[in-house]
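Bug #2210: token dump truncated for Golgi apparatus membrane protein TVP23 homolog?
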Amino acid sequence: SSDDIEDVSLFDADDDVSRRSKKSKIRHPVASFFHLFFRVSAIVVYLLCELLTSSFIACMVTIILLLSCDFWAVKNVTGRLMVGLRWWNQVDDDGRSHWIFEARKASAQGSKISSEAESRIFWLGLITCPMIWVIFAFSALFSFKVKWLAVVVMGVVLQGANLYGYIRCKVGSRKNLTSMATNYLGKQFLRQTVAKEDQTAS
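Reproduced locally. Full output below:
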């Protein structure tokens, strides 16, 4: 599959959002709430399920439903509303699969469409929760809770997929990621070389 990045307007409704006056820092409180609700609820149910019920099946189904709702909500709703990003897979007429990573265009007035508070909430939830599921994965592995490992891996995969998709939307294609890393390492190497030369000269 080939990767494409497009800088296009997501939906016509987004133009209406940019015209609204900023009455509060959080312009989409419902989206902000559900961005955190499903993922935090899945973590809480995982931590407390053995205290709440003895049925492993009930806990597993509840956690997977919460993770699935979170994946859908973050991928299709909260990312678009809170930070103006979205990603999906598109199959063309030839049957080839393309991954599309979109970023909303800046408004004509140059004003920021998404608020800083919403952006912080979005990225904090998007980055922190997959890290917690990775910790759960190591915990289940080392404590030999094999039956929970499948549930935890589901959490890592679903939330990790959204994290990867939105990072690609934010920074661009894989080539851009590679060039950014190369430039960063080159600058670090240059700084260390200059610092050593200064120490030698002094």
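Output looks complete on our side. The two ends are 55 Å apart (CA to CA). Marking as cannot-reproduce; reopen if the truncation happens again.
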